[in-house]
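Narrative summary of target 7.
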Amino acid sequence: MIKVAVCGANGKMGKEVVNAVCNNPEMDFVACIDINGAEFKTIEEAHKSKKIDILVDFTQPNSIYENALYCLNNGINIVIGTTGLKDEQIEELKHLSDKNKLACFIAPNFSTGAVLMMKFAQMAAKYFDNAEIIELHHNQKKDAPSGTAVKTAKLMADAKNSFTTGNCSETETIAGARGANSYSDIHIHSIRMPGYMASQEVIFGSDGQTLSIRHDSTNRSCYMPGILMAIKYAYENRNFTYGLDNIL
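Modeled conformation, tokenized:
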């Protein structure tokens, strides 16, 4: 049995993960960690009382890095669903994962459909010189742009150095009107609105045509198969992994 702890267990995603783990015959849910009304307030408290094979983190952008550092410095494999990590932080977690031979599995999105959307965008990037990303989330999401948008832009940027071919010189009369200029000049537009959960559209353009690749999540259950897959993979493979696409 894989002994699983969930940090952020009382959040919306955390509750779904706890339920999925509890209903999986290969897993044993051993620790509920949350600053609000849980058995344990911190990972350290849980670690002192329970044997933890895998910790799943769905907390906040301002706490995930420290949580991951604690795990990787204290013999705990970690699956990270919390977004907001900076590139240099991800590099440090990779270093610690390799050094300590522990699993660190980071996934900007655990939905198989979203992973396919990213892969399709990566494929299309070879054939278009212009592209932008629009990501839409509920208005309680604290980081922008989303981890999914960032990962998508990185995958697309592998194809070419700029996606603003032929664009004229631009002046923003209102700062930020053109969104964030990310990797390879891919503009990312973040929308936060009640009524959405998680959606993303990648728009490609060339003379006479556009191509839109879109994915919508309408409930959190769509992430659970990917999370369970990541837990099993992290238990069996003590290495660093960035993106669910690596194990599909």
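The first strand starts at residue 2 and ends at 7.
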